[in-house]
Structure formats: structure tokens, C-alpha cells
Amino acid sequence: MKTKDMVYNGLGFPVLLKDVEVYVSRGEELPKINHNKLNSAVFEYLLTSCFRLTGNQLNFVRGHMGLSQVEFARRLGFDSHATISGWVRKGNNASGMNPQTELAVRMLMAHFINKFEVVNENVPLLLSEIEECRPEISIAA
Predict the structure, then answer these.
(1) Domain edges within the chain
(2) Fold of 35-134
(3) Residue 106: is its pLDDT beyond 70?
(4) How many CA atoms lie within 13 A of 60 on its CB side?
């Protein structure tokens, strides 16, 4: 069984998989992963992160929660999905939402997985200027 670190782009943004088992298909090394477990781990990582969410990460969060852009916008208090679409179009750059809205997004995320203590611990950081960077997301396989 061969394991290695590899960058996985299957969620719409790069995720570094640490020490993941790999297999070869058509000459390409692919990670042998449980996608549901990976999705949940990345979702929780994004919830607890201290950086601004990118457009692609926000799109992942929305999709992981099973919400359309319209429903996501409604839950955040917006009248239309146009704002959500604008954030998502930022791709791998910071979405551009203000810190209060980002806090609301993270509260929705916490509600989805019933982990409000994570948001409560990070409120001061989330309401201050959150570092605008594209940190590497690293998940142990």
C-alpha cells in the first residue's frame, strides 16, 4: 500500500491530503479516500479557520449544506442570490463579504453540524480583520 502527500482539487479548491493511500488508474495516481468523510473534515476545517473564505470555499460550504444560492441568500438575510453569486465568482480569491456576514455564514455552518462552541470561541477573531490569505488546507487521510 503506497501512501503520499498529494493536492486534491475535487472540491473546487486545493486540499493537501497528508499521507493518503493512492492507487493508479490509467497511469494517474489517485487518492483512495472516503469522499463523505473528506467533505465533512474540510467543512469543519473551514468553520474553524481564521482566514477569509474564498468564493470556491463558500460555494463548497453552500453545496455541502444542500442549499441553493437562493436559500443560502435567504438564510443570510439577502433578498436575492445575486450577492452570493458575486462572492462565488471570486473563485480562489477571498469572497469579499464583510466580517459580520462571514460570522453569519460560520454560524449557519455551526448550526448545520451542531458545533456552536467553535463559533463562540472565534467571534472576536471573526469580527476583527480576518487575515486575507489562501492558506493550504491540510487534511490527514
Answers:
(1) 35-134
(2) 434 Repressor (Amino-terminal Domain) (1.10.260)
(3) yes
(4) 26
